[in-house]
Amino acid sequence: MDSQNLLNIAKQFGAPLYVYDAEKIAAQYQRLTKAFKGVSSLRLNYAAKALSNISVLRLMNNLGSGLDTVSIQEVKLGLMAGFKPESIIYTPNGVSLEEIEEASALGVQINIDNLSILEQFGSKHPDVPVCIRINPHVMAGGNSNISVGHIDSKFGISIHQIPHLLRIVDLTQMNINGIHMHTGSDILDIDVFLYASEILFETAKNFKALDFIDFGSGFKVPYKAGDIETNVEELGKKLTTRFNEFCADYGKELTLAFEPGKFLVSEAGSFLAKVNVVKQTTSTVFASVDSGFNHLIRPMLYGASHQISNISNPKGRERYYSVVGYICETDTFGSNRRINEISEGDILCFKNAGAYCFTMASNYNSRYRPAEVLWHNGKAHLIRKRETFDDILRNQVDVKELFEVSEKAVVK
């Protein structure tokens, strides 16, 4: 999936466009499984929220992955993509008991993150195996919006509420088969992750019939040359040793589970956009593309940095540009970036566009969402059509009869 192939794909399918490299996804999956080869039972549940196109889900299923879901809709997508119910874990936040019961009826693994629902579900369905999401009160994540394990987070059951949790389990006689945590995304310090893991191990001792311990994910990927990333190989060695020690003390071989999303698909994705206008102002040269935060919101929402290159002029001299979108609000993708000289009509490529990019796209400004392409075995396959005006109107109800003006009401 080099620059020339990306250009050809843009010519074939138009821009803006998301393109995903299946080979890179598979390589990341194998890297993670290799890092934890020392455990007897490993389960990687791909976090569907990162990129939920059904063709990508089928690819994950083909690789042997399980599926991490956060909504009943993702559960149904996973089942449609061929995942077996028992290979899907459902970890919602703040949803109704009715949605959790609907997911349970489909046969997936339930993961509950609050005491209220735990008590209600356990009282009605004590025989259904349930995993419990713990909040370890450990801060991890590259941005406050993606740090979910700290004391002020809405996610998980606080470790300080363990006595209350155990009382509910005892009174309902629930079947607790898993313990789970997720500290946040973009983990830089594996020692912080290992510290949180110790809290999870200590919590797990309270439950005598566990099948698995789920450590979430949040592994950081590099966003530019020389960027730091989570050392999954070192984490694999250290956590494998500690996990195997725990299993020996526990008296049972448990499954070690993770829920990688960004780690698997981020680097596999490229976002292609066409330059509409090169605009010189008194202080800046803007390259305005046929996109905006309606297609790629991460730079505006998280302050995320995506490497941007001009694949139409890869050998041109570098100049400074601020790459911006066409939304009628500030939507800057990158300020004062050194990019090969840009001309109107050139195709710019945004790297690391596989995770939380298309899935967070919208129709803001009544713009169409982009198409998606999967690069697989050296060929480009369209996996989502570009939207049309009919898609904008779909599900809208035009009550024009309410606003028809009668002839008698017209003043002559």
Can you tag this structure with a few keywords?
nine-stranded mixed beta sheet, 18 strands, EC 4.1.1.20, De-COase2_C, 2 domains, Lyase, Ornithine Decarboxylase, Chain A, domain 1, TIM Barrel
Question: What's the arrangement of secondary structure elements?
Answer:
Elements: H1 3-13, E1 17-21, H2 22-35, E2 42-47, H3 54-63, E3 66-69, H4 72-80, E4 88-90, H5 97-105, E5 109-112, H6 115-124, E6 129-135, E7 157-158, H7 162-172, E8 175-180, H8 190-204, E9 212-214, H9 232-250, E10 255-258, H10 262-265, E11 269-280, E12 285-289, H11 298-302, E13 308-310, E14 318-324, E15 332-340, E16 347-350, E17 371-376, E18 379-384, H12 389-393
Q: How many structural units, i.e. domains?
A: 2
Helix count?
12
What is the number of beta strands? 18
Rounded average pLDDT: 93
CATH class of the largest domain: Alpha Beta
Largest sheet: 9 strands, mixed
Based on helices, strands and strand pairing, what is the structural class? alpha/beta
How much of the sequence is in beta strands? 15-25%
- What Rg do the Cα atoms give? 24 Å
- Unreliable segments of 5+ consecutive residues: 141-150
Distance between the termini: 67 Å
The CATH superfamily of the largest domain bears the name Alanine racemase
CATH architecture of the largest domain: Alpha-Beta Barrel
What's the CATH topology name of the largest domain? TIM Barrel
Q: Shape from CA axes?
A: globular
Question: What's the helix-strand series?
Answer: HEHEHEHEHEHEEHEHEHEHEEHEEEEEEH
Domain Orn/DAP/Arg decarboxylase 2 C-terminal: 18-354
GO biological process, one term: lysine biosynthetic process via diaminopimelate
EC number: 4.1.1.20
Family: Belongs to the Orn/Lys/Arg decarboxylase class-II family. LysA subfamily.
